[in-house]
Write a structure and sequence with these properties.
Elements lengths: L4 H7 L26 H10 L14 H14 L3 E5 L2 H12 L5 E5 L6 H9 L5 E5 L6 H4 L4 E7 L11 H10 L4 E4 L17 E5 L13 E5 L1 H7 L2 H4 L6 H11 L2 H20 L4 E5 L9 H7 L6 E6 L5 H10 L4 E2 L9 E4 L17 E5 L5 H13 L4
Parallel strand pairs: 2-3, 2-4, 4-5, 5-6, 10-11
Antiparallel strand pairs: 1-7, 6-7, 8-9, 9-12, 11-12
The structure holds pyridoxal-5'-phosphate.
The site of pyridoxal-5'-phosphate has 14 residues, from α4.
């Protein structure tokens, strides 16, 4: 009988399981791998084209292979590849498909630094690009005969817009265009792009997979067709992640489902509490009934995570929003999210969208709700939000 995913999260990716030995795959650091003869060395070099095996440190060691196996299991892919950052995984995925004279179509909700890949890599290499609206209304008309890749993110960065991903994939695939999705929000657990029809799922393991704010890593998971097309590029471009980092992410992932359940539950409590506050114009959280595509969230997501964004009423200035942020005791001020702790930052939504105009809105504040006791978080938010009325 096939085990449930929650059980597989615990038991997959354990390397060569032994009757006697450590629970976790040991950290295997290596550059040189030694062979006992030229014949076995040649054999390994031949087999590494299709198998994950030890041949040279740049191609990973047993620790990386165990992590790749676990994430492949969760995402339902054919193979996975580790990268030094999430952004590197995104960049190499795009480079795998985009060629001079071609075109890449992005969801307007992509992680904002992806726009820098556009301006600093696609544009100088004569690859054009566009952004489509997250309600999908202009998706088909923005596809071109020369479109080589659709790159989406759902739920989207900062505002958590839900795309109808199966529909996007259907339309793209009808024209033979592959679809890659940034799945950092879902992180191998809450959302499954490959199951919804995408060809490649990219995750910043820096966030929930690590879960403890002390590792930088990206992971690309591809279906078989996509792997055959772009699977050799990461190695060709020298992409690798250290065995120590792979071990930390593997360790973090064992509690992924448990952590996300608490992040999601607490974030929903905070979201509903913030909805009641008169200072708040809108709370952006895909699990809320008033989210414009809550139906897609209910259909496609297993639950929510700790991310939520609020828009303050327009009478509050940036300086007031910043005083609110500074007054919070339990929310750290810093980039990234997905660790066990709560975080807060102002969100530049206008700069992160171009197919839709977000100017003229109130101040946006993005929270990551951590694993603290939610009543302490609410008390902290209450004293903080009260500073707006001083
Ligand atoms: C953080 C993030 C990334 C980039 O990950 P890094 O490891 O910081 O490069 C990519 N996509 C999304 C949605 C993210 O939130």
């Amino acid at each position: 009988m096939a085990h449930k995913l929650k059980t597989r999260l615990i038991h997959a990716g354990r390397g060569a399981a032994r009757d006697i030995g450590p629970v976790n795959p040991p950290v295997m650091r290596a550059s040189t791998i030694l062979f006992d003869s030229i014949t076995t060395w040649r054999d390994a070099r031949k087999r590494r084209e299709t198998e994950r095996l030890l041949s040279y440190g740049a191609r990973g060691t047993e620790t990386a292979f165990a992590l790749e196996e676990l994430i492949t299991e969760l995402e339902g892919g054919y193979r996975a590849q580790l990268f030094p950052t999430g952004l590197a995984a995104i960049a190499v995925t795009i480079m795998g498909y985009a060629r001079a004279g071609g075109h890449v179509l992005f969801a307007d909700s992509v992680y904002a630094p992806v726009r820098t890949i556009c301006s600093h890599f696609l544009k100088p290499n004569n690859i054009s690009y566009d952004f489509f609206k997250t309600d999908g209304s202009d998706f088909e008309e923005k596809l071109r005969p020369e479109t080589q890749l659709v790159f989406a993110e759902s739920p989207g960065s900062l505002l958590y817009e839900m795309l109808d991903l199966p529909e996007i994939c259907r339309i793209a695939h009808e024209r033979g265009i592959p679809v890659a999705v940034d799945n950092t929000w879902g992180s191998g657990w809450l959302y499954n792009p490959l199951e919804l029809g995408a060809d490649v799922s990219v995750i910043a393991a820096t966030k929930y997979l690590c879960g403890h704010s002390d590792v930088m890593m990206g992971i690309m998971v591809a279906n078989e067709k996509a792997w055959k097309q772009i699977g050799e590029l990461p190695e060709a471009l020298g992409q690798v992640s250290s065995a120590d980092d792979a071990s930390l992410v593997l360790r973090g992932m064992r509690t992924l489902s448990t952590r996300l359940a608490v992040h999601g539950q607490s974030a929903m409590t905070v979201a509903k509490w913030l909805q009641q506050r008169p200072e708040v114009k809108k709370v952006y959280y895909p699990g809320l009934a008033d989210h414009p595509r809550n139906d897609l969230y209910e259909r496609d997501c297993k639950g929510g995570n700790g991310l939520l964004t609020i828009e303050l009423k327009p009478e509050y200035t940036l300086a007031q929003a910043e005083t609110f942020i500074d007054s919070l005791a339990l929310f750290g001020i810093g980039a990234s999210w997905g660790g066990y702790e709560s975080l807060v930052l102002p969100a530049n939504v206008t700069g992160a969208r171009s197919a839709t105009d977000w100017s003229g809105h109130g101040q946006f504040i993005r929270f990551h709700i951590g694993l603290e006791d939610v009543s302490d978080l609410l008390a902290d938010l209450e004293q903080g939000i009260n500073t707006l009325n001083k």
